[in-house]
Amino acid sequence: SRGLGDVYKRQVLFDVDGTIAETEDFHRRSFNESFKEFNLDWFWDEAIYTELINVGDGKERIEYYIKRAWPEMLEYKNLTKYINSIHKVKNEIFKDYIMDSEITFRPGVLRLINELKKNNVRIAIVSSTTEDDLSTLFKNGLKIDPNSTFDLIAHGGCTENKRPSPEIYEWILEKLRIAPQSCVAIEDSLRGLRSAVNANINVLVTPSIYTKNENFEEANIVVSSLGDSEEPFKVIKGKAHGNKLVNIDLLNKIINY
């Protein structure tokens, strides 16, 4: 069969938060700071946020929390506007965190991106995060230009339904005019895995700090990271076919296995 290097037929799709970089705790802290600004006695600890990881985007996480903890607020006439206001402030605080932090790529991410680009394999971003937050993370935090690095950026504003709905992956497939079987999605969460699987896309999972205890049974392979020469990955589930790093050879075997 054709190899992964066929630029017109193959695509690697990267999730962002938790996959490209460990950003979720910045998001959690940003939510908590925004709650203070609105005089809300809410605090999302790590246990609460671990549950919220698998809920849509930021606004949906706030709504989900209200339903669970403060159902009387559902009667508010301007609840949607109120949630949007909280989320807007949260995004502003998140930008400040990224500006002030020394955030880095997870092991092997930049190596794999460079290898794929060198071999003319198209790469895309798939994220529930806003386009603005993605730009802040990449340009100010990770110091790369996402628009010149990736061939397509699918952000939270591209589709109405967020993961685990397959809608964002189906949107990508339509934009790129490629078959799902010719793609590999790299995800860190259960909702991301289910979204890709429901779109019939192969999935490699690298669990993050917040998702390490989830069951990724549906994934083609689960590894501790994408791996670097100094830090090879550990196989959690599946076959690495003799590889110690996630590279073109392994991704090609996932597609053709």
Topology:
Elements: E1 11-14, H1 24-37, H2 46-52, H3 58-69, H4 79-100, H5 109-118, E2 122-126, H6 131-141, H7 146-149, E3 152-154, H8 167-176, E4 183-187, H9 190-198, E5 202-205, E6 221-223, E7 235-237, H10 248-256
Parallel strand pairs: 1-2, 1-4, 2-3, 4-5, 5-6
Antiparallel strand pairs: 6-7
Helix pairs in contact: 1-4, 3-4, 4-6
Helix vs. strand class: alpha/beta
The string of secondary-structure elements, in order, is EHHHHHEHHEHEHEEEH
Mean of residue pLDDT values:
93
Helix content: 40-55%
Label the overall shape. globular
User: Low-confidence parts lasting 5 or more residues at pLDDT below 50?
Assistant: 1-8
| Cα radius of gyration in angstroms | 18 Å
What does this structure look like?
- By secondary structure, this protein is an alpha/beta fold.
- The chain has ten helices and seven strands.
- It has helices at 24-37, 46-52, 58-69, 79-100, 109-118, 131-141, 146-149, 167-176, 190-198, 248-256, and strands at 11-14, 122-126, 152-154, 183-187, 202-205, 221-223, 235-237.
- A seven-stranded mixed beta sheet has the order 3-2-1-4-5-6-7, with helices on both faces.
- Helix 1 packs across helix 4 (79-100) and helix 3 crosses helix 4 (79-100).
- It is globular and about 55 Å long.
- Residues 1-8 have low confidence and may be disordered.
